[in-house]
């Protein structure tokens, strides 16, 4: 393959592509596969502005285009007749391997990749058919895969002939819009495994530039065709693009590439093509690959705030920012952006408070720089509700909590405790705000009507404060909740605009009420007479405080029978009623509470799944990872007490491990960055071994006396972590 061959065999391509703008001759011979002089590339279209502003367009607007575009389709030119089959090609390769004569294989590759017409002649399933639909690209995928799988095991001259042919195809002069044959050729060329090698990146970059410059209608076809690629090959294409972006940002050998100033379009082009694959991935349920497979962790090491500010300042303009394509930014990087954005807002609000105080010639007080919440444990919910309602203007200041009658100083630990206890009380079934569904192990909003929804606003504000102050919460909402929370991601200026309403499906209901969703699914697949056998109407019934109430799903719904013809509409309206309409006031209050704290453009970068991770952290505990990242003060990791400690902890049940984490850090959830982000520390306590362990939750620190044996350590540790509520001062 390419790695085995001398890299300088391909260096000529990098050299002559970079001098394209200096070459003025040789245009007449550009179709020759042996030509090494590359003509002026002025005929390759300049890249248009690559700036899909997520504030206006979250994804490429696939769904806004009709299934079959009505724009005039230019006729495809007649194709050469090529009759080679997959078996013929495989036989040629086997003969070449045994005899050492690669001429037939060389001729096939050099002819096939010499032009877009030849690519279509070889790989189009039927050269006489148009294949102008989004559902069928007309590409013989099996033949393409076989040809590419064999390519890297052919001699270097064969591989060079393919690259020369691709250059010829990219340099042909385009007149008018692209044909479907051109799009097919682009789709096939993108799958070339040679582009994993950095020596081909200059050619790859020009291919990406041309694809990025296509019209939105052409992108529409490429997206729908791409979703038919197999999972393994789809992942390879995505990984190849991510690697291209990473190596252009941080090249291992900078001399391999042209100077960055001369190819500023490389990264925008690759990112826009990656956006096409992301759009294809989102069209299918379940998706082809996980959304996390589009993350580029290399971006964690660039100036993310500069990217964020460029995006905020320039928005939908000619200036590229990765924030225009948030799918490529990892959740860890997004957390950094949100944290720093929150810190800047906190500083700005605190500074304004200080200026206001001084301008009124009043003495500044340090407490004015914080959101100070003072609560009694015995009246936790009511006190918290009163404090947050009274101090609504201070919600964006740094949070500090005081428990009345306790001497603890809040350096972070009391805040964690306050969140934990408040959430525990609010979500208790007796409180009546949320219903716990045992089958799905999650909470959902109670549909009971009430006069005051302020407590739902409090829960929303709590979630917002948690994200704003980088606290993880043990809340079990279904994914649908976070989808609704981002509908829309920015609070609309018009207060009459509905909020928290999103498109919901039967799949969303399955995540909350699986038994009911299964029943509705059975209704959809029922083969008998729905009207006669079910005898249902477009009406639902709910019990509220012992009284059965009925609601019409549509006007006069109680008089409209559910039939085989309208059952899909009935199911959709039923799901929409349960997840949107019946809880609208509750969720709207929750929505406004959350956004009263987290009003930030950074939310536009997040997927619903990512909001859930930011709010709840990860429930997966890896105590071995915690052991590897733990720091020690007064102890060495080889000390007997430390070895006893980890032997005991690793043998704990999951429940006891969660209690330990809560005892030492104030939360039993793992932050976005994993256990390493906890900065967990074990310090030596010089107290008597009769004492229990002590924790400083503000600093994620466990103070451990030097217990003499494992049994004593285990006994004292279990007592300590099982009775851990309340704070004091040493």
From TrEMBL:
Active site: 698
Top EC class, one word: transferase
Gene Ontology annotations of biological process type: protein polyubiquitination
CDD domains assigned to the protein according to its UniProt record, in alphabetical order: HECTc
Catalysis performed (reactions): S-ubiquitinyl-[E2 ubiquitin-conjugating enzyme]-L-cysteine + [acceptor protein]-L-lysine = [E2 ubiquitin-conjugating enzyme]-L-cysteine + N(6)-ubiquitinyl-[acceptor protein]-L-lysine
Biochemical pathway: Protein modification; protein ubiquitination
Pfam family, any one: HECT
EC number(s) reported in the record: 2.3.2.26
GO molecular-function terms, A-Z: ligase activity; ubiquitin protein ligase activity
Keyword terms, alphabetized: Ligase, Phosphoprotein, Transferase, Ubl conjugation pathway
Gene3D superfamilies: Hect, E3 ligase catalytic domain, Hect, E3 ligase catalytic domains
Domain (HECT): residue spans on this chain: 391-730
PANTHER family (alphabetical): HECT-TYPE E3 UBIQUITIN TRANSFERASE (PTHR45700:SF9), UBIQUITIN-PROTEIN LIGASE E3C (PTHR45700)
Function in brief: E3 ubiquitin-protein ligase which accepts ubiquitin from an E2 ubiquitin-conjugating enzyme in the form of a thioester and then directly transfers the ubiquitin to targeted substrates.
Protein name per the record: Probable E3 ubiquitin-protein ligase HECTD2
Organism whose genome encodes this protein: Ardeotis kori
């Amino acid at each position: 393959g390419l790695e085995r061959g001398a890299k300088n065999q391909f260096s000529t391509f990098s050299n002559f592509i970079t001098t394209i703008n200096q070459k003025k001759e040789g245009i007449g011979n550009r179709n020759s596969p042996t030509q090494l002089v590359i003509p002026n590339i002025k005929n390759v279209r300049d890249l248009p502005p690559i700036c899909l502003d997520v504030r206006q367009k979250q994804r490429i607007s696939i769904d806004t285009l009709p299934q079959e575009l009505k724009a005039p389709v230019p006729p495809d030119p007649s194709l050469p007749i090529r009759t080679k089959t997959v078996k013929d090609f495989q036989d040629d390769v086997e003969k070449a391997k045994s005899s050492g004569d690669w001429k037939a294989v060389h001729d096939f590759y050099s002819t096939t990749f010499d032009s877009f017409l030849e690519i279509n002649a070889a790989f189009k399933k039927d050269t006489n058919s148009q294949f102008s639909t989004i559902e069928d690209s007309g590409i013989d995928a099996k033949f393409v895969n076989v040809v590419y799988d064999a390519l890297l095991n052919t001699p270097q001259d064969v591989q060079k002939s393919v690259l020369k042919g691709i250059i010829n195809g990219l340099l042909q002069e385009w007149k008018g819009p692209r044909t479907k044959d051109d799009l097919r050729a682009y789709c096939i060329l993108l799958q070339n495994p040679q582009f994993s090698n950095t020596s081909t990146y200059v050619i790859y970059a020009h291919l990406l530039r041309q694809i990025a410059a296509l019209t939105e209608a052409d992108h529409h076809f490429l997206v729908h065709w791409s979703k038919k690629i197999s999972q393994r090959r789809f992942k390879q294409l995505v990984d190849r693009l991510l690697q291209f972006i990473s190596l252009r940002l941080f090249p291992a050998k900078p001399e391999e590439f042209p100077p960055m100033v001369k190819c500023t379009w490389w990264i925008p082009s690759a990112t826009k093509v990656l956006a096409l694959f992301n759009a294809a991935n989102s069209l299918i349920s379940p998706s082809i690959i996980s959304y996390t497979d589009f993350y580029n962790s290399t971006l964690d090491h660039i100036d993310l705030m500069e990217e964020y500010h460029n995006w905020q300042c320039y928005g939908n303009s000619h200036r590229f920012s990765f924030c225009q394509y948030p799918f490529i930014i990892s959740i860890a990087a997004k957390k950094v952006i949100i944290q720093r954005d929150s810190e800047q807002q906190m500083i700005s609000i605190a500074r304004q408070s200080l200026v206001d105080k001084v301008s009124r010639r009043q003495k500044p007080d340090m407490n004015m720089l914080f959101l100070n919440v003072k609560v009694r444990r015995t009246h936790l919910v009511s006190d918290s509700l009163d404090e947050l309602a009274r101090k609504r203007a201070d919600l964006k200041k740094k949070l500090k909590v005081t428990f009345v009658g306790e001497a603890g100083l809040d350096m972070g630990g009391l805040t964690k405790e306050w969140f934990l206890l408040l959430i525990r009380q609010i979500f208790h079934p007796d409180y009546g705000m949320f219903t716990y569904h045992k089958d799905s192990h999650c909470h959902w909003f109670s549909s009971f009507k009430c006069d005051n929804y302020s407590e739902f606003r409090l829960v929303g504000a709590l979630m917002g404060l948690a994200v704003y102050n980088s606290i993880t919460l043990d809340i079990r909402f279904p994914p649908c909740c976070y989808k609704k929370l981002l509908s829309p991601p920015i609070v609309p200026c018009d207060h009459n605009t509905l909020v928290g309403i999103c498109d919901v499906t039967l799949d969303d209901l399955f995540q909350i009420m699986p038994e009911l969703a299964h029943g509705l699914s059975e209704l959809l697949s029922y083969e008998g007479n729905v009207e006669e056998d079910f005898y249902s109407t477009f009406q639902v019934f709910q019990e509220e405080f012992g009284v059965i109430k009925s609601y019409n799903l549509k006007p006069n719904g109680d008089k409209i029978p559910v039939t085989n013809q309208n059952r899909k509409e009935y199911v959709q309206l039923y799901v929409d009623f349960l997840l949107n309409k019946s809880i609208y006031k509750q969720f709207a209050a929750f929505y406004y509470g959350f956004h009263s704290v987290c009003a930030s453009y950074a939310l536009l970068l997040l997927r619903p799944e990512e909001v859930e991770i930011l709010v709840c952290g990860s429930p997966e505990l890896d105590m071995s990872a915690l052991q590897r990242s733990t720091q020690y003060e007064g102890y060495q990791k080889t000390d007997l007490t430390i070895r006893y400690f980890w032997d005991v902890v690793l043998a704990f049940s999951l429940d006891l491990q969660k209690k330990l984490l809560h005892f030492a850090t104030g939360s039993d959830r793992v932050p976005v960055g994993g256990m390493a982000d906890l900065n967990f520390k074990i310090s030596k306590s010089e107290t008597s071994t009769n004492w229990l362990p002590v924790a400083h939750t503000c600093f994620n620190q466990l103070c451990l006396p030097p217990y003499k044996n494992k049994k004593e350590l285990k006994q004292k540790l279990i007592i300590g972590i099982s009775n851990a509520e309340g704070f004091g001062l040493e």
